[in-house]
Amino acid sequence: MASHVPESSEIIESYLAPVAPTIARASQETLGLFVADYFSFLQSRWEELAQYEPLSDFHVAATTIVCQRLARQHTYQFLMGLKSKYESFRNQILNTSPLPSLHDALAIIDGDRHRRRLIQASPAISPGPIPIADQMAFAASGSGPRSSGGRLICSYCGDTDIRERCFKLHPELRGKSSKRKRKGHRTATVADTSPDPVPDLSHIQS
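Below the sequence we write its predicted structure tokens.
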């Protein structure tokens, strides 16, 4: 007898059901968090829920559909939970086709927050909204989101480092970093122990 393959809507409903009591009503306003901190809050809850409902439990034929729909669901939830002052950018992102990824949406919103701070420091900067294409270019520039302390953070793990140097996302970089440190230490040691050059006295006649 052939096994029943659940519809994608059934899969999404069963997977997202535990979200309701924990983060469905969460918003940046109610939590009183900065954009990057609000994003980290949501991401940690999503990762926690994924441990209880791993995608490996679903039928192979539905895994791709589940991943794509969950990605859009997370992007929608992040955008809809932002403060009202980000409404114009939220609408631009939601009306962009294809819909930007979750991390691109974060970079766009956080880039606008950083720009607002620059406007307060320099009133000569135009306060008007930036086209979404320019915001997407900023998202790809690697500037990255910032924590409440102003330090760059990785949009993947939330640590104080940029996504391109994240050891969790790129574990192969950890070995390269250690090699560079050891090489730098050896170079410094050789520089400290090398003897001073002997002056050339051949031009001096006796």
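The helical segments are 8-16, 28-31, 35-52, 60-80, 87-94, 102-121, 132-140, 172-193.
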